[in-house]
């Protein structure tokens, strides 16, 4: 749990009174929160510093005398958002997308189910649990895309049945057909589940390393990561931006 007792944490931080640079802020927060801070940068607003740690962004002042932490961060959600009202920009969201970006060339595509439509020039990857309802909704929209290559990483995180289905799909002679039969048409995968499924285990390890906590998670060619099922028009817009 990222923050066990927010009130106690804030009170303890008030004891730190000297001004600090980025390195000192990082050291102080790591000591108080017990997590690795990946970056500390000036937020550009109200003299605040942006702190990125454990997949979340929060804010503190140069004396580390107080912090802005969303209550919902306990449930792994980003609740505090810094908004630039003049330019109508969600600064926190923009920064979080940049900080959580995944270099597409780093994806182990050999462990994904590949499907190509048309010329396949537009590219995206997804992390999906076979029992995820939003994944089923996404699959129906992905099926409508043209000239695209989709890499689907089986990422069973919801239940033991998710793992069993993932293994059965991976062990199928035609993995793409087995995946689409289930995720789009609802045809339960059959057959064995005892082939070499280390790819699925490694996908789970890889996803945890990237702090992928929900499905579907979409990764576009530019590295942008989007949690959740985007509607068809949003998928088209994002893919067309990458031509």
TrEMBL record:
Keyword Lipid metabolism (UniProt): no
Record family assignment: Belongs to the thioredoxin family. DsbC subfamily.
Function: Required for disulfide bond formation in some periplasmic proteins. Acts by transferring its disulfide bond to other proteins and is reduced in the process.
Gene3D superfamilies: Disulphide bond isomerase, DsbC/G, N-terminal, Glutaredoxin
Official protein name in the record: Thiol:disulfide interchange protein
Organism for this UniProt entry: Azonexus hydrophilus
Subcellular location: Periplasm
Signal sequence interval, chain numbering: 1-20
GO cellular component: periplasmic space
Keywords, in A-Z order: Disulfide bond, Periplasm, Redox-active center, Signal
Source organism, top-level taxon: Bacteria
InterPro entries recorded: DiS-bond_Isoase_DsbC/G, DiS-bond_isomerase_DsbC/G_N, DiS-bond_isomerase_DsbC/G_N_sf, Thiol:disulfide_interchange, Thioredoxin-like_fold, Thioredoxin-like_sf, Thioredoxin_CS
Thioredoxin-like fold domain boundaries: 117-239
CDD domains per record: DsbA_DsbC_DsbG
Principal location: periplasm
Residues in Disulphide bond isomerase DsbC/G N-terminal domain copies: 19-82
């Amino acid at each position: 749990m990222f923050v066990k007792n927010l009130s106690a944490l804030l009170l303890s931080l008030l004891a730190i009174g000297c001004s600090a640079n980025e390195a000192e802020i990082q050291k102080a927060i790591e000591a108080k929160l017990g997590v690795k801070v990946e970056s500390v940068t000036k937020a550009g607003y109200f003299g605040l510093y942006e702190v990125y740690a454990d997949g979340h962004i929060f804010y503190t002042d140069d004396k580390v005398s107080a912090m802005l932490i969303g209550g919902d961060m306990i449930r792994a959600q980003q609740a505090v958002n810094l908004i630039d009202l003049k330019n109508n920009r969600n600064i926190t969201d923009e920064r979080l997308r940049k900080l959580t970006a995944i270099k597409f060339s780093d994806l182990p595509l050999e462990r994904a189910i590949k499907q190509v439509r048309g010329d396949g020039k537009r590219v995206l990857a997804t992390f999906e649990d076979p029992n995820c309802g939003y994944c089923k909704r996404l699959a129906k929209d992905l099926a409508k895309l043209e000239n695209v290559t989709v890499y689907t990483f089986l990422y069973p995180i919801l239940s033991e049945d998710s793992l069993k289905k993932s293994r059965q799909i991976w062990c199928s002679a035609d993995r793409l057909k087995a995946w689409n039969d289930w995720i789009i048409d609802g045809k339960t995968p059959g057959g064995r589940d005892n082939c070499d499924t280390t790819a699925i285990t490694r996908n789970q390890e890889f996803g945890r390393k990237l702090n992928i906590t929900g499905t579907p998670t979409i990764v576009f060619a530019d590295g942008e990561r989007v949690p959740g099922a985007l509607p068809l028009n949003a998928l088209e817009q994002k893919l067309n931006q990458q031509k």
